[in-house]
Amino acid sequence: MSVSQVSKDLDIGSDLIYSWIRKYKSDPDNSFPGKGHLKPEDEKMRRLERELADVKEERDILKKAISIFSKTK
Predict the structure, then answer these.
(1) Distance (Å, rounded) from C-alpha 36 to C-alpha 54?
(2) Distance in angstroms (rounded) separating the CA atoms of residues 70 and 67
(3) Do residues 42 and 71 both lie within one domain?
(4) Most buried by CB count within 10 Å: which residue of 11, 17, 54, 64?
(5) Residues 24 and 40 in one domain
(6) Same structural domain for residues 26 and 41?
(7) Are residues 28 and 50 in the same domain?
(8) pLDDT at 72 over 70
(9) Nearest by Cα to 27 from 42, 14, 12
(10) Residues 6+ apart with CB under 8 A from 16
(11) What are the CA-CA distances from residue 47 to residues 4, 41, 44, 50, 56 (Å)?
């Protein structure tokens, strides 16, 4: 099917269809991960950022605990 035919059938602009085609050609496996899903590398980045935040929180708690216990001596 031609892009013009698809754009008429879907009642959307042909520019949008060309954009989808470019996106698909640049990364065929992960072009359209779906609603609520991320590309694998984006998901990994999100997981690592969450893990880093947890580690920082644990570090801060340990720092506070050390300061509390060092004052009692």
Answers:
(1) 23
(2) 5
(3) yes
(4) 17
(5) no
(6) no
(7) no
(8) no
(9) 42
(10) 7
(11) 41, 10, 5, 5, 14
